[in-house]
């Protein structure tokens, strides 16, 4: 069991149709259809930011999303047990095996249970340190990092190193991306700025017309094949959405490195 960093090779292969306008973003693919109109600026004045209301709404929507994913997983598993053909079934089998294993071995960290999440794990800070020692991280001026718990230390190291941090709004529900810059933070607020509340409080929301260059993408994973770089997220498809949005913005191209931090475990078939 080791904390590890894996570079993903061709992590997002998809053929989606998407429509962008000034105020609206819409992206459809087989399992998700999302429409966003406008953005709420929760942090135009940090003193007016209602932390309790934001956190309560975040927890409510997260619970709702996890319940939806649990229902999807249940349907897939039931179809698999009845020998019905479901091309997505293997993904849910792998996800469940990883989540179950992490809980059974007690190598998971809060928030728990880790099911239907990008799982937090023992050794996440060590994995973040390994990532920070990569040449691509050292040379990057702007790093896009997912907002999940196991990558919190990656966000902290990004800001502590004086880099620009780009992070998506959780589930893209209050906007698209937020930009945080260490020069606009104090030493006492950098750590706070690495969690969901701090991102909403101190981040600058940007739209799809923002001119920005992302030098490195760090995403979370449930499972990764260390030989091929193929990865599985928790099943909602937001990593793909975000990647497509950044491509549309011209912020990334096919040469932009994509890495994931995670726990290297071995699962044996019964």
What is the fold's blueprint, element by element?
Elements: E1 2-7, E2 17-20, E3 24-29, E4 32-37, H1 51-81, H2 89-104, H3 124-132, H4 135-139, E5 142-145, H5 152-160, E6 164-168, E7 177-181, H6 187-190, H7 196-202, E8 204-206, E9 216-219, E10 223-224, E11 231-232, H8 238-249, E12 258-264
Parallel strand pairs: 5-6, 5-9, 9-12
Antiparallel strand pairs: 1-12, 2-3, 3-4, 6-7, 7-8, 10-11
Helix pairs in contact: 3-5
Characterize the structure shown.
- The chain contains eight helices and twelve strands.
- Helix 3 packs parallel to helix 5 (152-160).
- The two termini are 20 Å apart.
- Strand 5, helix 5 (152-160) and strand 6 (164-168) form a beta-alpha-beta unit.
- The strands form three sheets. The protein has a seven-stranded mixed sheet with strand order 1-12-9-5-6-7-8, with helices on one face.
- The protein is 34% helix and 20% strand.
- With 270 residues, it is an alpha/beta fold.
Provide the structure class: alpha/beta
Q: Rg, please?
A: 18 Å
Judging from the principal axes of the Cα atoms, what is the shape?
globular
Number of extended strands: 12
- For the record, give the distance between the C-alpha atoms at the N and C termini, rounded to a whole number: 20 Å
Query: Which parts are unreliable, with pLDDT below 50 for 5 consecutive residues or more?
Result: 9-46
H/E series: EEEEHHHHEHEEHHEEEEHE
Strand count, sense and barrel status of the largest sheet are: 7 strands, mixed
Helix proportion: 25-40%
Spatially, the strands of the biggest sheet line up as 1-12-9-5-6-7-8
Helix count, per DSSP? 8
Mean pLDDT: 77
Strand content: 15-25%
Summed up, the domain count is 1
InterPro entries: FTHF_cligase (IPR002698), FTHF_cligase-like_sf (IPR024185), NagB/RpiA_transferase-like (IPR037171)
Organism: Theobroma cacao (Cacao)
Keywords: Transferase
Protein name: NagB/RpiA/CoA transferase-like superfamily protein isoform 3
